[in-house]
Amino acid sequence: xxxxxxxxxxxxxxxxxxxxxxxxxxxxxxxxxxxxxxxxxxxxxxxxxxxxxxxxxxxxxxxxxxxxxxxxxxxxxxxxxxxxxxxxxxxxxxxxxxxxxxxxxxxxxxxxxxxxxxxxxxxxxxxxxxxxxxxxxxxxxxxxxxxxxxxxxxxxxxxxxxxxxxxxxxxxxxxxxxxxxxxxxxxxxxxxxxxxxxxxxxxxxxxxxxxxxxxxxxxxxxxxxxxxxxxxxxxxxxxxxxxxxxxxxxxxxxxxxxxxxxxxxxxxxxxxxxxxxxxxxxxxxxxxxxxxxxxxxxxxxxxxxxxxxxxxxxxxxxxxxxxxxxxxxxxxxxxxxxxxxxxxxxxxxxxxxxxxxxxxxxxxxxxxxxxxxxxxxxxxxxxxxxxxxxxxxxxxxxxxxxxxxxxxxxxxxxxxxxxxxxxxxxxxxxxxxxxxxxxxxxx
Length: 443
Known about the structure:
The protein is α/β, with parallel strands linked by helices. The protein contains 14 helices and 18 strands. The strands form 4 sheets. The chain has a 6-stranded mixed sheet with strand order 2-15-14-18-16-17, sandwiched between helices.
C-alpha cells in the first residue's frame, strides 16, 4: 500500500479505549416507536416547523424549513403521524421546538427520495443544491452546513479537499466503521465535493490505529493520482482541522483564519457518505452512525441510528447500564458535552454517547500551577495555556485576546497533561466567549 505518513507538532496520547467497539460490526439500531426531531440540528438559524399535530409524514419528507443561508432543511427520519410540535429537551441543555413523530413502522418513502443523476452529468451548482436540499451538515460534531462550506468567497481559491478520517477522540469508532463498510461512498462524496469546488486534488487523512479502514479506503480509490491517502500518527487532536491540514498539505491556517485561508476545505467521513446518499439514492440526511460506549454500558456498540431516536433507546439496545452512570457525555471524552439527562434525542452532531462509571468520571481536585510548561509543549496551536487561564481567571480578557485566546481549538490537551489537574481549557473557553461577546457589542 503506497501511502504517505505524517503528523503535527504537539498533542497528547490519551488512553484510546476504542477496543470496546472497534471489532464489533456496524449494526442497524432498532427503529424506535417515536422520534423527537428538534428544529435545531445545525449551527445557524433553527428551522420553522412545516407540519402540525395530526399530520401524516413520510420518511425523507421535509418537516423543517430553513431560515437564512446558514441553515438547512430538516426531514422526517420515519414515516408516521405527527403527535406533537412543541419544545423538547435538546442536547444543548435548552428546550427547543421539536416535531414528535409516532412511527408507523412502514418506512414509507417520500416521493422526493429519488436518485439525482450521474455525478459526471451534474453541474457543480446542481450538486451543491442537492447537498443543501438534503440537509447535509458536518457530521464530525460541528454541524456546519456543508453547502456553506462549499461556497467560499470568490477571493478564496480552494486547492484541496481533505476528508477528515482521523477520529482521534478516544472511545469513538463511527468513522472507522464507515470507512470499513462504505469506502466507495466516501470516495464518491469526496469526488462530488471536489467537483463543486473545481478542485483536482483530494486527500484522506486516517490515523494509523485504523489499519483495516486504511486498507479499505486505499483499495476503493480508482484514481490515485487525484486522491491520496495519508496514514497519520495516532495522536490527539490529529482530527482538529488546522492540525489535519498541516499534517496532510504542509500548509498552516493563519491565526484567526479559517481552512479556506489556506486554500483547503475539510469535510468529515460521515458527511462524504451523506453526500453520496443524497446524489445516488436521493436520500436526505435522516440517520447517522453513533458509538454507544463507556465503562457503564453493558454491551458497547456502534449503531446506525435514525435522527430523533432517544438516547435511552440506544442504551437499552446496548444492554442497558452495567453499573450506575456517573456521567453521560454527548460525543467523546475530550470535546463532548456532559448531559444532565438521557432523555434527549440523537441529532446530526451526535457522534457518540459515552457513559462513564464513578471511577472513570472522577475528576481530581486542582492544585496550584507548578510552572512545568507541559501545557505549552502539547498545545497544537502553540499557545500559552497556563497564562491564558490565569488571565481569564483574573477577568483580564483583553490580555487573553492579545495572546490569541481565540485561536484555542478547545481540544483539552492542556488540561489532560496538567500534573496539577487544573481545568485550563474551561477558563480559556470563558475568555473566548467574553472576547466574542465584547466584540459583538463593539467594544
